[in-house]
Amino acid sequence: MWHAAGAAMSWQPSATIDALRLRARLNRLVRDFFRARDVLEVETPVLSRAGNTDPNIAPFALEFSGRTDGAPRTRWLRTSAEFPLKRLLAAGIGDCYELGRVFRDGEAGGRHNPEFTMLEWYRLGHDHLRVADETVELVQAALALVGREASVARTSFRALYRDLLGVDPMTAGIDELRAVSGGIDIDPAGLTRDDWLDLLMTHRIQPRFPPNQLLVLHDYPASQCALAKVVWRGDVEVAERFELYLGPLELANGYHELTDAAEQRQRFERDLAVRSGRGAVLPPLDDALLDAMAQELPACAGVALGVDRLLMTMLGTTRIADVLAFDFNRA
Question: What distance in Å separates the CA atoms of residue 57 and residue 40, rounded to the nearest whole number?
């Protein structure tokens, strides 16, 4: 709830005590789940000298006032634990996970809070489909805490768009994608092909997902590879990544991780070019990650799961404030 200027902010929690107790039970379940699989819990820095270059993510920056011995004063609040976790993988730590806070600028209210909890883990020798199955297993265990069950479906990105919209997302041009948009009310000027694919997903496809179904959506267009490997599947290149939905809500995403440092640098630089074109801040590249990858990042797959979103589904709410002790407006 937004407060007018001068209005008193409530001192009380935004979530109920029962919801906070459920969060504690979920945290315990997560740790038990990975302990049983011999996956090590680790802690990595919240502040970094490098920021996230993803054009769709806005990182927070702050200035350190103490002695730096020549290191940069500007530090970035992490938007994910991914990069330091990969450095640990390159150092030989093996399967690992982190359950912790991450930070993203730009949105507060509804389903979004600038500070939220993310679970991230990495499994050596796995691909994206194998860690997707593990993610389903974890989410089903979490839902069982509140007596909820969900069916499971799996499909490729290509098959989903063909089945629901009659269009091939791997080969269709902008005009074809716009033709099946159903009159989405948006200014089309400047929209890219990937923008149209995203709009179709959020406006035409996700609302049709059954509410009690876990959907593993895998093998995305190569143009949406992010940090995933790109391989040929028949006549097209695909990104070996997945997203997990419960009903229309995305809970997790994962990659068969790119391990090539030179390719990773090129992707970072492409991200920065997009950010520059949008007039967005340009965070420094994570050279420590690139050095670790050049040394040898082992073959692995990784997952990021939004813990607050999972709690929201467990409680049947659409407000992230209902699962946070103190949301942005009460912090």
Answer: 28
Domain spanning 17-150+212-323, CATH architecture? 2-Layer Sandwich (3.30)
pLDDT value of position 1: 44
- Is a pLDDT exceeding 70 seen at residue 8? no
Residue whose C-alpha is closest to residue 148's, from 24, 27, 26? 26
Distances (CA, A) of 156 to 2, 73, 178, 227, 231: 41, 44, 21, 18, 14
| pLDDT, position 3 | 47
CA dihedral 104, 108, 113, 115 (to 10 degrees): 50
C-alpha to C-alpha distance for 315 and 297, rounded to whole angstroms: 38
21-52 core/surface letters (b: 16 or more CB in 10 A; e: else): ebbeebeeebeebbeeeebeebebeeebbbbb
Task: Find tokens 């939905």 and name the residue.
Answer: 245
Average pLDDT over the chain, rounded to whole? 95
Is residue 283 within 8 Å of 59, Cβ to Cβ? yes
What does DSSP say about strands 213-221 and 230-233: parallel, antiparallel, or unpaired? unpaired
Candidates 276, 307, 289; CA nearest to 113 is 307
In three-state form (DSSP H/G/I as H, E/B as E, the rest C), the secondary structure along 187-244 is: CCCCCCHHHHHHHHHHHHHHHHCCCCEEEEEEEEEHHHCCCECEEEECCEEEEEEEEE
Structural domain boundaries in the chain: 17-150+212-323
pLDDT at 109 over 70: yes
In whole angstroms, what is the distance from residue 256 CA to residue 130 CA?
9
Specify the pLDDT at position 27.
99
Q: Out of 3-7, 56-60, 79-83, 195-199, which region has the weakest mean confidence (pLDDT)?
A: 3-7
Question: Which one-letter amino acid corresponds to residue 66?
Answer: G
d(CA 242, CA 272): 24
Note the pLDDT of residue 37. 99
Region 276-280 average pLDDT = 94
The length of the chain is: 331
